From TrEMBL:
Classification via Pfam families: SMC_N
InterPro entries reported in the protein's UniProt record: DNA-binding_RecF (IPR001238), P-loop_NTPase (IPR027417), RecF/RecN/SMC_N (IPR003395), RecF_2 (IPR042174)
Subcellular location: Cytoplasm
Lineage: Bacteria, Pseudomonadati, Pseudomonadota, Gammaproteobacteria, SAR86 cluster
Keyword terms: ATP-binding, Cytoplasm, DNA damage, DNA repair, DNA replication, DNA-binding, Nucleotide-binding, SOS response
UniProt binding sites for ATP: 30-37
Family that this chain belongs to: Belongs to the RecF family.
Ranges of residues in domain RecF/RecN/SMC N-terminal: 3-348
UniProt source species: SAR86 cluster bacterium
Protein name: DNA replication and repair protein RecF
Amino acid sequence: MAIKKLSLKNFRCFQNTSYDLCDGLNFFHGINGAGKTSILEAVYTLGSGNSFRTTKSNNLIKLGSNSFKIYAEIGDLRQKIVISKTKSKNLSIKVNEKSIIKRELVSLLPINAIDSKMFFYLSSAPDYRRKSLDRSLFLVSNTYQKSWFSYYSALRQRNSSLKRNSPQEAISWNMPLSDAASVIQNERSNFLDKIKVNFFNLVKDQPDDGFADRLSIMNINLEKGFSNEVLLDDLEASLAQDLFKKTTQCGPHKADLVFHFDSSMAKDFFSRGEEKAFSIIWGLAISMTLINLGIDNVTVLDDLSSEIDEKHLETLLKIIKKAPNQFIFSNISDLFNSKIDENLNIKKFHVEH
């Protein structure tokens, strides 16, 4: 569901500004400090009720003001979202003048943020890649949500038993853990297979592009976090070690996405700029997969060209133009300063503060 109109009042550096967006590419450019990141932050807040830059919503209020308001119209029916905050009150979220909670925003306006953490997807800890996969799956599958919560509830109980050195009680949680783990692993594996199809489709057909050629032969796999066919066998075998370490050492909570060229880690072959370029393409593949599964979403990307050389930037721009959803992104310089292809659905905004 695309954002048709975005208005900001006393949000960050903006006193009162408004943008009419298109359903395709929306490109914001301007000097550092102009407010480009704040615009993307406002979009992210619309879909989550949270900022990707601060946990304190009062920090979003323009200096010298007492409150902020983000207003948006989304979808063809122009549903109205208003998020506001007064310093002395809690965050207010309203859709069509009806108050809702943050969790409801996620399904109303799914946002896929390719942010500074996502830029170094390969170098990040496994926990980051696992949570990134989980966030997308939460949008796709109620079954996954239910199994995920069941798994982590049972995991907390088993770990509590291990800390109290109660082996029989710990064993009693093995089957609930194993049952939920089977669903989680199956859903993660199926979803990853779909992302991979979109990823490889994005990088193919890039003539004389060595970087895209390398990406096209990358091996991408899910390490599920346990070695046997079902988790139950691992849990039974590892009980003594788990009691010793007082924690459950195997299961989906230890899963990771791994990226290789032959037997070597892909991150060891990339410069920082190349890793960022890969991460952006991977993020786009996730957005496309969500769309394929009926989850319309908005992709946001801040500061596209930093750390990326001209050749890789050229590759990225070709791939970004394939985005089938609303894509809101920023850069210091105008990347489309020549005549824009009339077949390209794009709007440009020069941001000045």
